[in-house]
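Example 3.2
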Amino acid sequence: MTTRAVDDPRAWLEAHINLERGIGIPSDAARTAAPTRARIEALLALLGRPELEFSAIHLTGTNGKTSTARMVAALLHAAGLRVGSYTSPDLGRINERISIDLEPIADAELDELLQLVALCEPSLTDPPSYFEILTAAAFRAFCDVAIDVGVVEVGLGGAWDATNEVDGRVAVVTNVAIDHEAFLGSSREAIAREKAGIVKPASHLVLGETDPELAAIFEARGPRAIWRRDREFGVRANRVAVGGRYLELFSPGGEHEVLLPLHGAHQGDNAALALAAAEAFLGDALDGETVRAGFSIATSPGRMEIVGRQPLVLLDGAHNVAGAEALRRALGEGFHTSGPRTLVVGLLREKDPMEMLTALGIDDVQLLVLCPPPSPRALDPAEVARAARSLGFPEDRIEIAENVRSAVGTAMVDTPDDGQVVVTGSLYVVGAARTMLVG
């Protein structure tokens, strides 16, 4: 079959099945009912098996994956390694997903990678998905620049995820909670079994989940070594500090006091996991100077991120009940303001609005601004409004906006300078708001 370059590689990418956005999925859901890695395996074979050319740290879990991955990358970069990172989803630009030494790849590089994958597509019996294309592009990018380590975040689940083509020297599990039930199952045990698929016999497992029954599912995979939260690694102190958190961390490599420029107590837990993962990969302790330097440059856009003041504007991509509860705790601990709080919320269809609003906590909210996420999977904000009224939230303090831009605009106008605007409910909402407010 003849091959040729595509005219617009971004448009070519967007034309593929995209489970994240619910685009192009067959009506019979055949591709979601029968999970397979056959497409990504065939595509990577055509690209020369790039996933075999670098060592990897592979991360899964329900919440905290991206933040932990970014911290792992920052620590290993501070240690002098050349680091490739693959995370998802992006908040505004596809380039954010693939980074080399903490910097997203340039447009020209990404387009070249997409062109390369496009040239392979005619040789495949089944076209790859959007995520499979980007995963293959990331692995090829890592191979081309000869990274020392790839920090690879699972897209969904573990066993059947396209990223599971890497044989992670270190397998990291943040936690297990209910999310993506249609794909992963409706119980934490079922979800844990799916996520445990990234743990290989040669893996060093760094396990953040502490529930004994769930932990046993990961341990049963038979990794070569296991480090468990609160045993081999963890947090001794975790307090609010100016601009982030003061942490006292411990790991097999020693004890460290650090200032982490991220907000929320849960980021302290992620930091402990990241430190253990970095040391597991290196097979040695990180010295104090490297640890402090690595954490000092850690960023996690869209996760308890402050993007404005007067009023204080925070973005947090909490998109499930566990994430919403973590956001509520973080707001209660470190973000007190004398003025009122406005909550901007947009949810996807698979989320229960009653559960999400309860987890977010709306008792102390002065204004609730509801909008649809920019996604075909958007939940009608009128349904979220009905849930809010059922929870006793006053009708006259609910606003429904037609899009994220309008919702944020309403929130900014109606919130006084001494108040607070919190944008949450979906990474798609947060991404759109961030593009509007930060650029």
